[in-house]
Write a structure and sequence with these properties.
Layout lengths: L3 H7 L6 H12 L5 H12 L4 H13 L4 E3 L7 E3 L7 E5 L5 E4 L25 E4 L2 H5 L2
Parallel strand pairs: 3-5
Antiparallel strand pairs: 1-2, 3-4
Helix pairs in contact: 2-3, 2-4, 3-4
């Protein structure tokens, strides 16, 4: 990932310690929840409110710097891999989440049977299963 401060400036955002720390936490812990990101940020810069973390995550998602994914029955997860329309594998047992490249290899990866007049530019797919670690522990 490019320098966090430069990335924020490129997207027209003021550089703050909170935003830099949140961006660094997302980069170091892909697929983390907001609460997990808050823990990392607090360890790096000290005090930050829960709302401060959510505000920073929200603006970073809005600007396209990070991506928010919302698996069914799970809290939102955040990652800094953006722009390539990849998908995710999630373990039903432990929640381990990992990236998987596009199922076809080009955007939007899947063709809808009916587009309803929409111009489709992205497909979001989540594969569910059991990770290798949980399979070993069965």
């Amino acid at each position: 990932m490019p320098n966090a401060a430069d990335l924020l400036r490129e997207h027209g955002l003021p550089v703050t310690a909170q935003r830099v720390a949140v961006l660094g936490a997302v980069s170091s812990r892909p697929h983390a929840t907001a609460d997990a990101i808050a823990e990392v940020v607090r360890a790096r810069i000290g005090t930050i409110s829960r709302q401060g973390v959510y505000d920073a995550l929200g603006i970073l998602v809005k600007k396209g710097i990070i991506r928010r994914i919302q698996p069914a029955r799970s809290p939102a997860l955040y990652e800094d891999r953006v722009g390539d329309n990849h998908h995710h594998l999630i373990c039903r047992s432990c929640g381990n989440t990992t990236d998987v490249d596009c199922s076809v290899g080009h955007r939007p990866c899947l063709t809808a049977s009916e587009d309803g007049g929409f111009e489709i530019d992205e497909a979001e797919v989540i594969y569910w299963g059991t990770c290798p670690t949980c399979l070993k522990n069965r």
